[in-house]
Amino acid sequence: MSKKGKLSLKGLVILVLIVVGVFTGGFLYYLNGIGAVDSSNKSDVTVTIPNGSGASSIIYILDDNGLIKNMNCAKINARIGGYNSLQANTYIFNKSMTLPEMMGAINKGDFEYMSKTRFEVKEGYRLTQCAESLAEVTDFSKEEIMNVWDDPEYVKELIGKYWFLTDDVLGDKVMHPLEGYLFPDTYFITESDPTIQSITEMALDEMDTELTQRKSSIEASGHSVHEFLTLGSIVCKEGCATEEDAEHIAGIFKNRLKEGMSLGSDVTVCYIFDEDRVDLKVSQLSSDSPYNSRKTAGMIPGPISTVPTMAMDGVLNASDTDDLFFYAGPDGTIYYAKTDEEHQKNVNAHPWTEEDLDQQ
After folding, report:
1. pTM tops 0.85
2. What is the DSSP string of 155-214?
3. 214 and 73 together in one domain
4. pLDDT, tens digit, 9 for 90 and up, residues 180-210
5. Domain CATH number, residue 86
């Protein structure tokens, strides 16, 4: 090989090495540029991504929050990252995260990184208590929430959306249309600007799931959904600790309905006065409210609380019993009886003391 050929080959090798070096250096520069701003800083940084945001605009939002190490590299990543399903929401990131980690979380709508407000609908909560619970974790007041939940026009919209909501909830004797219809569970609000309506429908969606699973059984029971939830709420408020008790008490209520008797449940009287107590006053027990099942025979106008699945299934699997009475003793034990005489014996044998009442 000639000297000239050797020089040409050497030059080519050098050129290749230079190109590889430049490419490698550029790639390493790029990787560094999309890396973490501060790998040791795990302090939360809240980032809100508005609806309709593209990858390029999100880069600027992240930069405004101090989460971009190198803007030029970030712009390249926005173009080549394949971020085609970006999810608007409020996210919690930190400066130890790389750009691909943050963009990947936004693209996926990763629940792990979403800002979460915890809203709890507890078993046996009255609607007013649900409103108090929601007011504690949002900027809405209890009064604002109840105004929405009691708004007939909004409720009519919901009736058109959910199969289990019917005109029964707008009966003139019903105290609160959505009473008993919010499913008891813990809900995570991830919206950056949630509304009372959007939060409400989270709980109604969950109720839809639970009732749809039981739809054929509810229809076979002979009860409307409204009656079903009404019975379930009373069973729940009677403090059933076991499935067996829930089924037994539901069986007793069904017997009393068949006999044309009043349900005779003090928890329905408590509902009238928006409280929970064992030692009801004579004036409360004599209330003329249609919810007073101590005075009014048959079904009351509507549910008195949220209805957990155990109470639902208690109604659907109500015991075939001859009992017509039950009594919950101070230790939580429930005593059953076929006659009023037997019932009074149970009451006298297991009385509530002042100390018991103070512990309630």
Report:
1. no
2. HHHHHHH-TT--GGGG-TT-S-TTTTTSPPEEEEE--SS--HHHHHHHHHHHHHHHHHHT
3. no
4. 999 999 998 888 789 999 999 999 999 999 9
5. 3.30.1490.480
